[in-house]
Amino acid sequence: MVQSKGLALEKEEVLRDLRESDIIEFSRLRGEPKWVLERRLEAYRYLKSTRPDPQIDPVLEKLAYRAIIEGYLAPTIDFDEAVKYAEKIGMPKEELEMLAGGLSVTSDNRLLRAYLKFMESRGIKFSSMDEAVKKYDIVKDYMFKLVTPTLNRKSAYHVMLWSGGPFLYVPKGVRLPQPIYSIFTLGLEGLSQTEHTLIIADESSLVNWIEGCVTPFKINYGVHLGALEGFALKRSSLKIVSINNWMGNIYHMPIKRLIVYDRASAELSMVGFWAKSIKVAPQIDVVGESGKGIIQNVGFYTKDEEVFSSPKVVLRARSSSAMILNRTVVTERASEIFKGAIVAERGAKGASGFMSCNTLILGDQARSIAIPGLHSEEKDVDLSHEAAVGRVDYEKLFYLELAGFTEEEATWMLISGFFEPILSKMPGTLKEEVRNIVSLALKAH
User: If DSSP codes are grouped into helix, strand and coil, which group holds residue 55?
Assistant: First the structure.
């Protein structure tokens, strides 16, 4: 028996209100190909045959899966309605222009999209995942290869219940320096967001992707269990920024996994604000020679928020490199546990990696723990790390207040400056737009 916060879960109790026949009917009504159904059933059987995870199952077992499946069969609506939806939920005009002015908006797993003609003319494939699994043969070769049905229980829940999300394929040699956007809004109680994002950057291509996750109003109990799979093929560059700002008691448990091939690079930047609980374990596998994997995190945690962050980069090829950067501000009664890892496997000769964890604490009750981990199976490897936890520099606050700023304005200026070492590393247009979004979110808090 596994117990967590008073909730006991016997193995035979898992998914007690859901049968294989429900999964089969769900997939049939969605018109999915056989291979998608097979992955769903594989995930279902894995969940039924393995022990519950005390970090995952107690949160999800409060949900009624039959109601979730029935609720996912809602129709798709168009992009114009998406813009109206964003305005309706009170999203600031500036944030709407930055996040909804591009290509897609997802509300409760319904992809709302607009194709740009120039993208079509260059062979770019962009659609909802619901359509992509039926329309594009290439999807079968990549989907569920990193986020597999048996990776772990969180991954299995996602594969079994996924619905919606965007698919993006950028052909060889096509470079898109202008960011592509997607908004995911969680507007229902329970598990109303299990979108699956699949991004393929083919050889020598360049992709910048920004996704924003928000709630339109305070949610009493909500779970985000979306997933992202990213493939950076030879000599390509894939940069992903994920911004999360929830209202209410949201349990944020995304799955993000990327893979990097020869002389390619993948960069995953996560910007996180309020949620009841955040459990993130992003991973980048660098399997190609001279490939590069970077994970960056900017977080502002407050109230009684609980954050568990365990980013990981695995180096599996010669001259590959990794970087993990974590900069967070922890306030009030919030707590953060950071457990980063860089692993150099056998064969990764000449690999290098650097990890930095810096936390700024505001208040006597806030808590932060940093546990950096470096592991190498090769001698010819250069791995290093640094970690620092500090408090607001009251001397700087004093001088800013002398200059005419209020204490609140001065504090936010220092916090914004604290995040700058990560934000400044982002490419041109991406850097400025993310700065603006972070500024808007900080002001909201």
Answer: coil
Q: Could you read off the pLDDT of 5-54 as tens digits, one per residue?
A: 333 344 445 677 788 998 998 999 899 999 999 999 999 999 999 999 88
Q: How confident is the model at residue 142 (pLDDT cuts 50, 70, 90)?
A: very high
Closest by CA to 36, choosing from 127, 134, 108, 150, is 134
Q: Which tokens belong to 178? A: 């202008």
Neighbours of 417 (CB within 10 A): 10
**Residue 387 main-chain phi, psi, to 5 deg:** -145, 140
Compare 312 and 362 and report the one with higher pLDDT.
312
3-state secondary structure of 278: strand
> Among positive and negative, which fits the CA dihedral 428, 429, 432, 438?
negative
Closest CA to 313 of 321, 304, 303, 305: 321
Count helices and strands (H / E) in the chain: 13, 28
Query: Cα–Cα distances in Å, from 435 out to 64, 131, 343, 441?
Result: 39, 33, 31, 10
CA distance 317 to 292: 10
- Which of 143, 369, 153 is CA-nearest to residue 257? 143
Give the 3-state secondary structure of residue 133.
helix
pLDDT score at 418: 74
What are the beta bridge partners of residue 280?
309
Higher pLDDT, 222 or 355: 355
- Across residues 321-335, what is the average pLDDT? 92
Please provide the distance, in angstroms rounded to a whole number, between the alpha carbons at the two ends of the chain.
40
Which distant-in-sequence residues (6+ apart) come within 8 Å of 353 by Cβ?
Answer: 313, 315, 321, 322, 323, 324, 342, 344, 374, 381, 382, 383, 384
Distance (Å, whole) CA 321 – CA 350: 9
Which element (helix H / strand E) includes 239? strand 237-245
The per-residue pLDDT for range 401-420, each reduced to its tens digit, is: 666 666 666 666 677 777 78
Q: What is the pTM of this model?
A: 0.85
What is the pLDDT at residue 31? 93
Residue keyed to tokens 């109003």 = 217
